[in-house]
Amino acid sequence: MKSDVYYFTARTYNHEESLSKVKGPLALEKIGFNSKVNNGDKVVIKTHFGALENVRYLRPSYIRFLCDHVKTLGGVPYVAESCGWGAPEEVTGIHTEYSGRASEDEYLETAKMHGFTKET
User: Fold this and answer.
1) Per-residue buried b or exposed e for 10-21, using 16+ beta carbons within 10 Å of the residue's own CB
2) Domain range list for the chain
3) Fewer Cβ neighbours under 10 Å: the N or C end of the chain?
4) Nearest to 3 by CA among 31, 37, 36
5) Of 82, 68, 84, whose CA–CA distance to 120 is shortest?
6) What pLDDT is attached to residue 89?
7) How confident is the model at residue 90, as a pLDDT?
8) pLDDT tens, residue by residue, 63-113
9) Which is more confidently placed, 52 or 70?
10) Exposure of 27 by Cβ count < 10 A (0-12 exposed, 13-18 middle, 19+ buried)?
11) Where does residue 94 fall: left (phi above 0), alpha (psi -120 to 50 degrees), or beta otherwise?
12) DSSP of 16-83, one letter per residue?
């Protein structure tokens, strides 16, 4: 059985057609997300804060959009992060994309540098 695949680029030329205004809600509707969330449902939004000096992570503004969208559906959003802790660079002598996750403090500092704070 073939699956439907939808592609939405995050690229936009103005804020009115941005992922959070138009593309995001349309994508969630297309995949049936809206019908899965009922009033009072707890919805976990799994994210990754990103590794030090890396740009491959979901931006805080998109997490905010998802939380707001879940709220409009009557759900209660929770943001969760789970990561693998890499061996520290001081121990291995090798800098990897996981080096900034060697301790809780380092990882939370990396998260803060990427825009993830209590306020966001």
Assistant:
1) eeeeeeeebbbe
2) 1-36, 37-113
3) N
4) 31
5) 68
6) 61
7) 62
8) 888 999 999 999 999 988 876 555 556 666 665 555 555 677 888 888 888
9) 70
10) middle
11) beta
12) GGSIIIIIHHHHHHHTT-GGG--TT-EEEEEE----TT---S--HHHHHHHHHHHHHTT-EEEEEE--
CA dihedral sign, ordered 117, 83, 62, 53: positive
CA distance 43 to 38: 10
Residue 69 is encoded by which pair of tokens? 């969208």
pLDDT in tens, 12-51: 777 666 666 777 888 899 889 999 999 999 999 988 888 7
Q: Can you tell me the distance from the alpha carbon of 87 to that of 90, in angstroms, rounded to the nearest whole number?
A: 8
